[in-house]
Amino acid sequence: MLEVCAKGSDGTSLVELVLALLILAVLLGLAYPSWQRFQAHQSLRYAAAQVATDLREAQERAKAERKAYQVSFTDRSGRYQVQRNDGGFVHVADLPRGVVVEGGVLVTFSAFGRPNGAYRIVLSNPAGSATVTVDPGGGIRYDAP
Hints:
Layout: H1 14-65, E1 69-73, E2 79-84, E3 90-94, E4 100-102, E5 105-109, E6 119-125, E7 128-134, E8 140-143
Antiparallel strand pairs: 1-2, 1-5, 2-3, 4-6, 6-7, 7-8
């Protein structure tokens, strides 16, 4: 007959099991704050990309429809709105949880997709801040940590 356990070994003791669980709990406790920081950074990056994409969409809609569009950001809010100036299209977008806009900004694109100035939208959360910029020529870019 094949013997599974070594001689004198009766399996895992309760003390060994508790010790293994204690080590696992300590490792998880050390890793959790790092995981939270990672998630906050990812949320901020995603929010910046989302805002830049929605600004580009408003710009492209303005060009395609030959109608003015605007994107309005409310101070300390996690929500913003994309709409056609004469009505007919409204899109309300939510930023990822914990990300807010610093300062109210109203970005307007002409019927040819040109912004009526330069804009800077600052997004923040506990991980830091990200910036989305619209230059007077219509270029849209973002910078996130």
